[in-house]
Amino acid sequence: MIPLAMVIMAFSAVQRPALASEALAQKYACIGCHQANARLVGPSWKEIATKYKDNPKAAQQLSTSIRSGGSGKWGAIPMPAQPQVPDADIAALARWILSQK
Ligand code: HEC
């Protein structure tokens, strides 16, 4: 039998998209290079959200950057492509990052 606590946890993850995307950032090891507020290997989520806040195509552009990687936008260190992440999860991550202002 599945413990009730696990059912409640799974249910609340579905109900709260922000948390679900934080879990995705952990699952795909984004957090090895990105943090919420401080620059690590890559820019912080907050820096990215601030830079793209007035860009109507931001979600699309960030999705492309996450899928294909990128370089030269933030500094000398390139971001490797993330082909292991499915499109739906990339879109969720891009939207979540843009909400981190
Ligand atoms: C090995 C380290 C590393 C990992 C792992 C990594 N990133 Fe990055 N990321 C970077 C670096 C470095 C940059 C800055 C690249 C540049 O200057 O253009 C970056 C840039 C970005 C940007 C900004 C792109 C832009 O066009 O401005 C986003 C969004 C992003 N990463 C999301 C993610 C997500 C989501 C994941 C997990 C699926 C992830 N990153 C995993 C290092 C990493």
TrEMBL record:
Region: Disordered, residue numbers = 59-78
Q: Does the keyword Transport apply?
A: yes
For whether the record's keyword set contains Transport, the answer is yes
Q: Where is the composition biased (Polar residues)?
A: 59-68
Q: Which InterPro entries match?
A: Cyt_c-like_dom, Cyt_c-like_dom_sf, Cyt_c_ID
List, for all copies, the residue spans of the domain called Cytochrome c: 16-101
- Annotated keywords: Electron transport, Heme, Iron, Metal-binding, Signal, Transport
**Do you know which Pfam families this protein is assigned to?**
Cytochrom_C (PF00034)
Which positions make up the signal peptide? Answer: 1-20
What is the protein named? Answer: Cytochrome c-551
